[in-house]
Amino acid sequence: MKTAISAGPQDNGKRLDAFLHERLPEFSRSRLQSWIKEGRVLVNDASARASYLIRGAEKVSVNPAELPQLKAQAEDLPVKILYQDDDVVVVDKPAGTVVHAGAGHGSGTLVNALLHHFRSLSTINGDLRPGIVHRLDRETSGVLAVARTDRAHQSLARQFHDRQVEKIYLALVNGQIKTKRGRITAPIARDPVRRTRMTTKLASGRSALTEYEVLEEFKNASYLRVRIGTGRTHQIRVHFASIGHPIVGDRLYGAPPQGGLGRFFLHAHYLAFHSPSTGGRIAVESPLPPDLLHLLSTLRQNR
């Protein structure tokens, strides 16, 4: 429920986030700051930064986000398992499925489904994200590894950190890329204006490596095999948008509408890592799902 607060002379000079925390002590300061970033807090009907200094006569409105539950709950939902042993489960995540609970997504997540099927997952990431070592965006489909034990989680996390995990995606981007093989190394940071996006335009970004190979060309699109050496948020999406070739269907990063697809064309095709127990190599593939295959088929017919 939206809350309206009036600032008075006694509030002059206070930061907006501190002012809100005084008036709404039931919410943590970090949560209030996140709502400010998400545009859920308006000062005189306009968005403002957490550092905004109150003058003493403002009307402040707060539209709280739904609070996430404290613990993920098991749900009887289907899961497509590509590989499993006592350490690891590798699943084929469908597009549209959220990996774990967050704002607005307390149920129907991959974690909820995994808890039903496996009961016990690693605890290192807490009760809301059991087993989760890495993630895929909601509309990205494909291979995702989940740790069943804390020991396995530590091993997988170390492999991801040390860049020992091989990750290959299949993507369709807008336009024809001139260089048939290439590397994109632009650092990635959170967009300070549009907080749901990432950007390559800030000097403060984190290092990122994306390698690609053009598999097939169409009139207005290129079908790629993409290998990432890092795992930054939205990495593939923002990297290709930065060179003028956004992922087909990715409206957030400037792609034109793609009729009939209902998602963007990005699929985690291949994942390889070392077994936490034996050290042996485990490699798992996920084929393109029907919706992406259908779009490719249509493009091939209309060359």
Can you characterise this structure?
With 303 residues, the chain is of the alpha+beta class. The chain folds into three domains: 3-62, Structural Genomics Hypothetical 15.5 Kd Protein In mrcA-pckA Intergenic Region, Chain A (Roll), CATH 3.10.290; 68-162, Pseudouridine synthase, CATH 3.30.2350; 163-303, Pseudouridine synthase (2-Layer Sandwich). Helix content is 19%, strand content 25%. The chain contains six helices and 15 strands. The chain has helices at residues 16-23, 29-37, 110-118, 150-161, 235-242, 290-301, and strands spanning 3-6, 41-43, 46-47, 59-62, 81-84, 88-93, 141-147, 166-174, 181-184, 189-190, 198-199, 210-217, 221-228, 266-274, 281-285. The protein starts with a strand and ends with a helix. The mean pLDDT is 92.
